Amino acid sequence: WQAVQNATGHTVYSGTVDLTSTQSGSTYNLTDGARGGHKTYNLNRGTSGTGTLFSGSDDVWGNGSPSNLESAAADAHYGAALTWDYYKNVHGRNGIRGNGVGAYSRVHYGNNYVNAFWSDSCFCMTYGDGSGNANPLTSIDVAAHEMTHGLTSNTAGLVYSGESGGLNEATSDIFGATVEFYANNSSDVGDYLIGEEININGNGTPLRYMDKPSKDGASKDAWYSGIGSIDVHYSSGPANHFFYLLSEGSGTKSINGVSYDSPTSDGLPVTGIGRAKAEKIWFRALTTKFTSTTNYAAARTGTLAATGELYGTDSAEYKAVQDAWAGINVGA
Ligand code: ASN
Ligand code: ZN
Ligand code: CA
């Protein structure tokens, strides 16, 4: 017999959290029976297959330290659950494919692997342990980023190169950020930074900044002809910036103790409409307007169409979407 259990996780990044596990006889395992059976596996430095399902005789996972192999598993299991709940409760979507079926996570991939990724072929997420200063790649924003690649594949299908590739990456950063805000976890508050907890650069800086993407030294703040030929993790910059401007507006602002300073390429101000509306617009555009070949110009058209349906074409929201695109040099 199997029973859905309320488990406890001592994560690397998010403190002590509630998890959902499954009890099978006298053994507990990291199968989330409340979210499509999402499982978390231990690759134990392997790079293929699923390794072993995390299981044990108690229902407490990890101790908060990365040296305990269950700790990163607790983060990954938690991040997947939050992302599932976010899409269900905020957007009414039941799992990545909308059919209530869970994916799975694999942690401890390879040796000193400093990345995480989604794979369409396994329908799974994989996390490295990092190396040197870098911690396991299992923070909430990274988990939500990877899981969102699955959503994008199963909806718009944005091709992972050129401008559509930048929009694919931005979609993962956008929902990576919104899931982190949704978590509302006191040890891991929301922000418009990606991967700030991993310490990949060794100096505490994040991987990416949505208010002013060029702060990372490589991402672009605004669209230009030819942006489609740079790495998709940099051509995502203007769309991340669009989302920040639409949510929070241009200029300086402090949120949860983090300072932001968001310029516009046309020098004109943008008045934000709040993250709650901006995320509705992006999700609706992604799932009903964008296609595999959507570029920046088409993303503008698609988000405006979505905004018109949600709030009307005479609305302040519609004007803000126009202004935010103009603020990253995407015009009519
Ligand atoms: N972490 C990266 C990403 O999700 C992995 C990759 O570049 N494929 O974009
Ligand atoms: Zn990505
Ligand atoms: Ca973050």
UniProtKB/TrEMBL annotation:
Domain of life per record: Bacteria
The compartments listed are: Secreted
Of which family is this protein a member? Belongs to the peptidase M4 family.
Outline what the protein does. Answer: Extracellular zinc metalloprotease.
Q: In its UniProt entry, what is this protein called?
A: Neutral metalloproteinase
Natural source organism: Streptomyces pratens
Q: Which residues of the full protein are shown?
A: 230 to 561 of 684
